[in-house]
Amino acid sequence: MALQPLQLKDKSSQSNLPIMRMGVYLLIIFSIGNAIMERLFPVEPDFIVGALLLIGFWGKLVLTKRKWRKSILDKPVLIILFAMALSLLNLAFQGSQYFNETAIQYVRLISIMVLSLLVYQITDGQDAIKILKIFTVTVAFVSLLAIFGFLTGISFIRIGGLEISIRIKGRLGGIYEQPNTFGAILTLAFPIGIVFTLLNKSILKKLSWIMISILCLTGLFLSQSRSAILGALVGIFTMAAILRRLYKGSHSIVIILLAFAGALAMIMATGMLEPFLIRLNWDYYISQRIESAEPSRLEIWNEAIRLAFNNPFGYGAETKYIVGKGLGAGEKSVHNVFLSFLSGMGVLGFIGIIILATTPLRKLWKLAFAALYIELRTLAAGLFAGLVGFWIFNLAHSVIHWVAVWVYFACAAAVIRSGDIKGGSLTL
């Protein structure tokens, strides 16, 4: 299939919102860098930008009588909102001491979800591409800083009186000081870097994007986050299988292999290849479990499921305390986003997060095979790979309360909406 010019402009796009789109670009940059900014400033910059966007958009919505555009995010967000309300009511009737803590957590998640819906209203498919480029370049820059620190033996970044540990027990945590959090954002960014490497015809742009992809993959490997690496591998190889049907020969496979070769070369330069391979070894994991007094994830998940059967409305912020107490380990995170929603927000919250995870994947899968343009198929395959990796990662973690992640969801929804499908096989 020959490359054809692709335009993802939407007829119902809010075409006179350029300032707000600039706000979205700032929002994604501030959100990715929020780990530093929230410690430098009294108020989180991404929420300030988000609040300004919200005020500006609702003003235009009321004054110009714009229609609210439906998205694939609407249903899961509404279900999760209803689950939160029921959970809070349940805690209120019980007189729970964790009501306020739960309410604060829910308000934060609500604000993040509302921002994602707002981004979708402002964004069409073409804007989504720009946002994804900014997202990926920003993540790669954060990874570059961390890798540079690794190469030069720097373990701390100091900004004024602020000290950030980029290296945690030999693992790269970047500005987040947490290797798994670092791995989560890289899992989303890496396939998008591959997408833009494939779609750019200019050799210089191809080289730029392959380097960005290599930086993302190198940071991911150096984080040594097993769940993030597993998710990224499953996602990218699924993407490769899809793209083999679109590109002549093995062009897409060669690009992916080049990214892996570049990342492994950079890991060797840091002297971390052996520790990386050891940590990924199954025997290392078994020995780690034998030596650890901490409960395993299977034990934690079993306890979370038991709690869900006891209370279909969820325990809110109390969940981590009850799970920890049940395992004799003090406060304990559920370490699974789906079970976290199940035990925290109840059955309805679990349904909401399942719909949030599966609906975009199902739509992107269809788009990757049925769209009229090869560029749109490639982008759909890249978004599919990123989301597959992200949700696999979240089988062992719960990284969902993040504006950058929800903006990514909004971009996926905008691209799906712009899909030009033969015979109307994809309706939104």
Number of E-state strands:
4
Average pLDDT confidence is 86
Rg over CA atoms: 22 Å
Quick one: overall form? globular
Structural class: mainly alpha
- Give the strand order of the largest sheet, numbering strands 1, 2, ... along the chain: 1-2
Strand content bin: under 5%
Query: Order of SSEs, N→C?
Result: HHHHHHEEEEHHHHHHHHHHH
**Kindly, what is the distance between the CA atoms of the first and last residues, rounded to a whole number of angstroms?**
26 Å
List key phrases describing it.
about 425 residues; mainly alpha; two-stranded antiparallel ribbon; two-stranded antiparallel sheet; 17 helices; globular; disordered N terminus; disordered C terminus
Would you mind describing this structure in some detail?
The protein is mostly helical and 428 residues long. The protein has one domain (18-424). The protein contains 17 helices and four strands. The protein has helices at residues 18-32, 34-40, 45-64, 74-94, 99-122, 125-151, 179-199, 203-223, 226-243, 251-270, 273-280, 282-291, 297-310, 319-326, 337-370, 374-393, 403-417, and strands at residues 156-159, 162-165, 167-168, 171-172. It is globular and about 65 Å long. The two termini are 26 Å apart. Mean pLDDT is 86; it is low at 1-5, 11-16 and 420-428.
